[in-house]
Amino acid sequence: MKKSLIALAVLGASGVAMAQSSVTLYGVADAGVGKVKYGAPAGNDANGKNQFIANSTMNNGNSRVGVRGVEDLGGGLKAGFNFETGLDLDNGNADAVFWQRNANMWLGGNWGTVKLGRTLNPTFYGIAAWELTGTANYSVVANTYSFAGAGPRNNSQLSYKTPDMGGFSAEVGYILKSDNADRAKWDLNLIYANGPIGVGLSANKTKGINTNYSLGAKYSFSNFALAASYTNANNAANLRRRGFGIGGSATFGAFALTVDLTRDTKNEWTGKKYTNGVVEGKYALSKRTFVYGAFLRLDGTNNYGIGVRHNF
Question: Where is the Porin domain (predicted)?
């Protein structure tokens, strides 16, 4: 259960103002067993063998703990922060760089939100608007095209996000060249999420590398959802990988089944076109805990895992 605390209220000296400030502790615990051939974790985990899995390609998500806070400044203006670090349930270690998942602060109001620091980038949120597994570690779209070539996070990002306008929103982020190996970068999304429809356009460009983009849409009806996408991604060597994705999911009470596929139309990353796919099954034990099993066929490798995830 999320634990909301009245931040520093015991100080008393600024009682009225501090009563409008809060800090929340949250996190995820995710562990299981499986075979990870693609992107196997380092350390004492053996590549491609049955093993305990934590923070691997075949976990639903990475274990983490974070703290976020918000202060109501009045007049519709708020300020906040988010710090988050990963935890390895295999050995209890935290990330080598503490708070490397999130380390940012923001200022927001009716006009939108400005955020500064390390954070999930606009490209990630644009893809999350339609991706069927909830951007799980074994997402076939994310693993095939690396979130449109940008990965999920940016360092030193300065960003602005619009308020929601009838389901429409946009976010643009910028990294100064002095903060990115002398190569400035921009990153943006355009999202429409209203009722059964979710559409997201993501685009990003680093100086000297061609523009990356991804366009996808999801339509939900009754207990089912269908999604389709097209992605063009370039790596640091300016090699291109592009292709389309198509998939569907169905929910039957507490059980959900998802099948998602990608097909390369061009692949200079490996020199060979692949059809990749993921099959995922999840069973909700409560609103915060579920068990899952997944099989991921990725660039000629077979990966699978079963596990349990708890959100708090």
Answer: 7-302
